[in-house]
Amino acid sequence: MSLENKVAIITGAARGIGYAVAKRFVMDGAKVVIADVDDEAGQSAVDDLKKIGEVTYVHCNVAERLDVRNLVAETLNAYGDVDVLVNNAGIVVGADFLELEEDDFDRVLSINLKGTFLCSQAVARHMVEKVQNGGEPGTIINMSSINAVLAIPNQIPYCVSKGGMSQLTKTTALALAPHGIRVNAIGPGSIMTDMLASVNNDPAARNRILSRTPMERVGEPSEIAGVAAFLASPDASYVTGQTIYADGGRLPLNYTVAVPDAD
Ligand code: NAP
């Protein structure tokens, strides 16, 4: 198993893409720490995944420095190491440009972007120290989005946060490369999670998404987990500073495609 005995922290892993990454990592042999703000969902995720491997839950709001410090301390306490960090926690707040509240702009940026910085810095301090003591370098994976590149007019802070994630991924990768620590990002297209729930029962929204998706379907969280498993594994040993877009062909598409009939 490619992650045998590796220790991985995954933020926002109580549900959705983060949960799928946690499941895949546990199946690949990792000891996984699920960090989230939804304690009930987090505990239930642990209860499910305990059946297949080693997993624990830590409450952590990634936008809070002290929570992040506690997350790393709890992980070291439980497993003695951190080899992989997946910065997955993220939120959306939709509002028209003229109506968007300052607090909402700040909240999205502080979770999606500053939270990624805080977690990366705290974990990287441990990883660098480990390398300096002769240990193996770890790796960091950021959950970006196609909205790092594509804009939506009523998703301003979200798109800005994911645009910033591109540069945060590159700058962190360059800063940590001399220590052998790799930093990459995944840019999912539309993936079937609670974040996309509104689309399920809205034919117009489904039409909008699928007309921009050459593979004619939304993605599954497990398909993003597969990319994370690759980036965390030794198979990606010379890959750093990259964003891999798993989007069913959306970014290369100019114009639109025909939408298949609903099942
Ligand atoms: P999700 O289903 O909403 O799950 C996100 C999890 O993160 C939830 O458990 C959420 O808790 C938690 N969370 C929220 N704020 C947090 C904080 N401050 N600290 C720690 N945890 C926090 O989202 P998802 O669809 O799986 O998305 C996961 C990541 O993929 C996000 O970064 C998102 O931007 C990215 N992404 C998703 C899609 C998609 O189509 N789904 C596409 C591109 C990129 P609460 O539920 O209590 O808020």
From TrEMBL:
Keyword Isomerase tagged: no
Superkingdom, natural source: Bacteria
EC number, UniProt record: 1.1.1.-
Ranges of residues in domain Ketoreductase: 6-189
Pfam families in the cross-refs: adh_short_C2 (PF13561)
Keywords: Oxidoreductase
Signal peptide extent: none
A molecular function GO annotation: oxidoreductase activity
Enzyme's top EC category: oxidoreductase
Stated family: Belongs to the short-chain dehydrogenases/reductases (SDR) family.
Protein's name according to its UniProt entry: 3-oxoacyl-ACP reductase family protein
